[in-house]
């Protein structure tokens, strides 16, 4: 009996499931035929599907709206995007269409804010939250924005020196948040985050540096878990500690009315993943509400700054299998026409897994394979998926091109790999296209050429 790839997929997963479907043994993404996309634009091909960004924003907003209504939680909710997940202009434009605030991480992020202001995409009332460790140049850029008249730029204090440095630069009053240095998951190699102010030092820091200041106004307490928002004992324990700190600070500064929930929602790495975002939102709001009720404190306005959750599902990349190498009786290597190190660096650096599916040949029998890149590096491979510890694809036949796709990789990969720069073994950055809500396609960048690389290298 012939067991095909589509048989294997349907036996192991709830399939089809959004955004995927199969028609005539070819994979579709949101109704887009990916085989035809490859035929027109080639591969490797980096794709940004913008409507999914706005879908995720609306999903989170609806979740918080529902939780607020159910729990009678009277306060405001603000959705933000941390630009470090993807700095591309078309991503930021999609975010701003949904009226989201922006979270910055470094000096050059502020230059993006200036560009957006010059283009009249934001005004001086737009909320800008400045996070991360602040170098002198970063602090100077923040002060310049405040002095330009940005009323809602908010400095999240990460280290003690920051207020001392920025205070003499300010002409106007600056909104301040304080980041809690949370304890990390027990599986981490360190106990307490290097970022933020120790929780037992925050009250003294506030009294010594902010209380009574003519330059600073405390607006936010910033809570961030490196592992993200997860339904586990560690997250709930740290959130409760955060609320204890918030209630103590509120006693000292009754005008404090904002809680910034950093650390994003999880993103699907497998077709088996099924996250209950609505449940998590409800439980977070309920936890905050119960803490405030215990001390008769008004409910804080809630801020989230989701990065990967916002943009990851909007990105995917297509490859073609160039050849299959049989190195022994058991291992078959399908060689892709690019490199995992250069186009999906998280698979190489932190063993990140993505949803991976064949694009065509779904009617063929399947086989277990390893995937290898074309660099000369022994670590340029992808050998397992989170759910099976193996990769299964349609059997390779050199007379039938085999196309594969990696999905939900729209966050971080291009910035980590150095978009448009120098890559390992001089593998070029792939062609990059953008698809809008009407399925109009725009080529954002052609595949990087040799002249561009050689110029960077000084030739």
Mean pLDDT: 93
How many DSSP H or I helices?
15
Low-confidence stretches: none
Q: So, the CATH homologous superfamily of the largest domain?
A: Alanine racemase
Provide the helix percentage. 25-40%
CATH topology of the largest domain: TIM Barrel
Annotated CATH architecture of the largest domain: Alpha-Beta Barrel
Q: Major sheet: size, sense and barrel closure?
A: 10 strands, mixed
State the distance separating the first and last CA atoms.
59 Å
Number of strands: 22
Supply Rg.
Answer: 24 Å
Q: How many structural domains can be distinguished in the coordinates? A: 2
- What is the approximate shape? globular
Strand content: 15-25%
CATH class of the largest domain: Alpha Beta
The computed structural class is alpha/beta
What's the helix and strand layout?
Blueprint: H1 5-12, E1 20-23, E2 26-29, E3 32-33, H2 34-41, E4 45-49, H3 51-71, E5 77-82, H4 89-97, E6 101-104, H5 107-118, E7 128-130, H6 136-148, E8 153-157, H7 161-166, E9 174-181, E10 197-198, H8 202-209, E11 216-224, H9 233-252, E12 258-262, H10 277-295, E13 301-305, H11 308-311, E14 315-326, E15 332-336, H12 340-343, H13 345-349, E16 355-358, E17 366-372, E18 381-382, E19 391-394, E20 402-407, H14 413-417, E21 431-435, E22 441-445, H15 450-456
Parallel strand pairs: 4-21, 5-6, 5-13, 6-7, 7-8, 8-9, 9-10, 9-11, 11-12, 12-13, 15-17
Antiparallel strand pairs: 1-2, 2-3, 4-14, 14-15, 14-20, 16-20, 17-18, 17-19, 21-22
Helix pairs in contact: 3-10, 5-6, 8-9, 9-10
């Amino acid at each position: 009996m012939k067991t095909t790839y589509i048989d294997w997929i349907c036996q192991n997963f709830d399939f089809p499931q959004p955004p995927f479907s199969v028609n005539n043994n070819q994979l579709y993404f949101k109704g887009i035929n990916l085989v035809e996309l490859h035929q027109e634009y080639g591969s490797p091909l980096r794709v940004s599907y913008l409507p999914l960004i706005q879908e995720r924003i609306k999903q989170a907003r609806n979740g918080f709206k529902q939780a607020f209504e159910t729990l009678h939680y009277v306060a405001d909710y603000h959705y933000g995007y941390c630009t470090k997940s993807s700095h591309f202009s078309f991503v930021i434009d999609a975010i701003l269409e949904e009226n989201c605030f922006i979270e910055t991480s470094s000096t050059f992020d502020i230059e993006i804010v200036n560009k957006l202001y010059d283009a009249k995409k934001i005004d001086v009332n737009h909320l800008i939250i400045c996070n991360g460790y602040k170098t002198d140049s970063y602090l100077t850029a923040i002060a310049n924005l405040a002095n330009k008249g940005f009323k809602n730029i908010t400095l999240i204090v990460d280290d003690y020196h920051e207020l001392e440095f920025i205070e003499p630069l300010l002409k106007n009053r600056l909104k301040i948040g304080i980041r809690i240095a949370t304890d990390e998951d027990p599986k981490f190699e360190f106990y307490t985050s290097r970022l933020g102010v120790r929780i037992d030092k925050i009250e003294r820091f506030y009294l010594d540096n902010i209380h009574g200041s003519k330059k600073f106004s405390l607006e936010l307490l910033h809570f961030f878990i490196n592992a993200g928002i997860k339904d586990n004992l560690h997250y709930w324990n740290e959130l409760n500690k955060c609320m204890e700190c918030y209630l103590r600070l509120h006693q000292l500064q009754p005008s404090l009315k904002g809680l910034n929930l950093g650390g994003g929602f999880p993103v699907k790495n497998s077709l088996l993943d099924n996250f209950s975002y609505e449940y998590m939102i409800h439980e977070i709001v309920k936890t905050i509400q119960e803490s405030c009720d215990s001390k008769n404190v008004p409910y804080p306005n809630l801020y989230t700054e989701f990065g990967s959750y916002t943009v990851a599902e909007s990105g995917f990349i297509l490859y073609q299998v160039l050849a299959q190498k049989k190195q022994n009786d058991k291992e078959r290597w399908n060689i892709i026409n690019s490199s995992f190190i250069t186009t999906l660096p998280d698979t190489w650096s932190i063993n990140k897994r993505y949803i991976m599916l064949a694009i065509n040949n779904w009617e063929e029998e399947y086989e277990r394979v390893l995937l290898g890149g074309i660099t000369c590096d022994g670590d340029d491979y992808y050998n397992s998926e989170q759910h099976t510890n193996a990769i299964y694809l349609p059997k390779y036949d050199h007379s039938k091109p085999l196309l594969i796709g990696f999905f939900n990789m729209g966050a971080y990969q291009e910035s980590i790999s150095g978009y448009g720069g120098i890559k390992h073994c001089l593998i070029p950055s792939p062609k990059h296209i953008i698809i809008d809500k009407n399925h109009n396609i725009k080529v954002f960048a052609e595949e990087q050429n040799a002249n561009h690389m050689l110029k960077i290298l000084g030739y």
